[in-house]
């Protein structure tokens, strides 16, 4: 969710359902010209603007800097491939792993949760599966699943 308040733009990790909505953490967005956002894509209420948009840019030092104007969001038909753990972990083990990752003070980890027999970690951008490989080595293959919030542009 793109969120613009007090001249600051961000992609929100958590979009709070107040009115106007508030952004609960996320990735700052630089280079956004709100004049070029397609009509009807975003809503505005009491000086806060929000909505879904496809953003293309470079990600460096924790900020997404746009390299082109915002676009309508893509319609996704497929879900990410599911990784099956080599050995199922019990809920207590998963909670301990999630807590270990959450308290590791890694600046690249946005959200950690355990569900469906795995620990899911959301990061802004994972290219090359380095973080996934390190979690596989530390906790076992498929126990921790890294999901990248931003995706490389292939177009």
Could you walk me through the main structural features you see in this protein, from its secondary elements to its overall organization?
This protein is of the alpha+beta class and 155 residues long. It is built from two helices and twelve strands; from the N terminus they run βββββββββαββαβ. The strands form three sheets. The protein has a seven-stranded mixed sheet with strand order 6-7-1-2-5-9-8, with no helix packed on it. Strand 10 and strand 11 form a beta hairpin. The protein is elongated and about 50 Å long.
Task: Offer a few descriptive terms.
alpha+beta; seven-stranded mixed beta sheet; three-stranded mixed beta sheet; 14% helix
